[in-house]
Amino acid sequence: MPRSIPVPYYPYPIPTNLEDIPRYLYEELQRIQVALLAQPVAFAINDTEAFNVTTAVTWERLFDDGVVVPVWSVPGGEFDNTTGTWTCPQSGLYDISIHMEVSPFGAGNKVYYAGLRLNVVQDGVPDTVESTDGGDDSIPLGVTLTGLIALLYGDTLSVDATVVHDQFVGTSDINVGWQIMRMSG
Fold first, then answer.
1. 3-state SS, residue 52
2. What is the pLDDT along the chain (185 residues), one digit of tens a residue?
3. 130 contact partners, CB below 8 Å, separation of at least 6
4. pLDDT at position 73, please?
5. Is the dihedral of CA 153, 185, 95, 57 positive or negative?
6. What is the pTM of this model?
7. Whole-number Å distance between alpha carbons of 33 and 39
8. Residue 130: enclosing H or E segment and its boundaries?
9. How far apart are CA 151 and CA 122, in angstroms?
10. CA angle 48, 53, 59 (to 5 degrees)
């Protein structure tokens, strides 16, 4: 059987000027760029746990037990479940939503409070946003923190919570969910 003659391959040198790129290659690079920008960034995680109730505000990090994993994460891999930290994979405008439900803690007639705190580190500078709710200790509490925030690649987010009772300490069950969605570039 005859063998074909090997043809040596000499790659075309990479042009240094955009105008020197062949049209077909320029169009393909444009399609790749559009596909990368269209790639949604989305993240959601849920957790249920017994949470410490104290008589003074004491913030505790959520989602840092090393066990809880995201319900879904696109493109994935940007959440560290040992520190509870999410790292931004693409710059853009993000819709952040955190909701926590706290089970009733007492027999009534006393007040308790629940709070959420979003920790944002942008370009090495830390900042926080807080939301609280309070009421009678015989009814459940719900705390929600939502907003739009512009993030750059590498910025980090984490969530802390606190549950404070006027007189008693112990534990209360909480259900908490955290969603992040990239809205635009």
1. strand
2. 667 777 776 766 767 777 777 787 778 877 776 666 666 788 999 999 999 999 999 999 999 998 888 888 887 668 999 999 999 988 889 999 999 999 987 777 788 999 999 999 998 899 999 999 998 888 899 999 999 999 999 999 999 999 999 888 899 999 999 999 988 77
3. 115, 116, 117, 118, 145
4. 81
5. positive
6. 0.76
7. 10
8. strand 125-136
9. 7
10. 80
Answer whether 48's CB lies under 8 Å from 175's CB. yes
Separation CA 63–CA 81 (nearest Å): 6
- Among the listed residues 77, 118, 74, the one whose alpha carbon sits nearest the alpha carbon of residue 97: 118
Neighbours of 178 (CB within 10 A): 27
Whether residue 75 has a cis bond before it, omega within 30° of 0: yes
Pick the closest to residue 174 from 142, 146, 135, 149 (CA basis).
142
Specify the DSSP class assigned to residue 7. P
Predicted pLDDT of residue 35: 67
pLDDT in the model for residue 36 = 62
Which residue is it, tokens 């043809």? 7
Task: Identify the burial level of 173 via C-beta atoms within 10 angstroms of its C-beta, where 0-12 means exposed, 13-18 middle and 19 or more buried.
Answer: middle
Name the residue type at position 180.
Answer: I
Locus of tokens 């719900």: 142
Radius of gyration for the chain, computed over Cα atoms and rounded to the nearest angstrom: 25
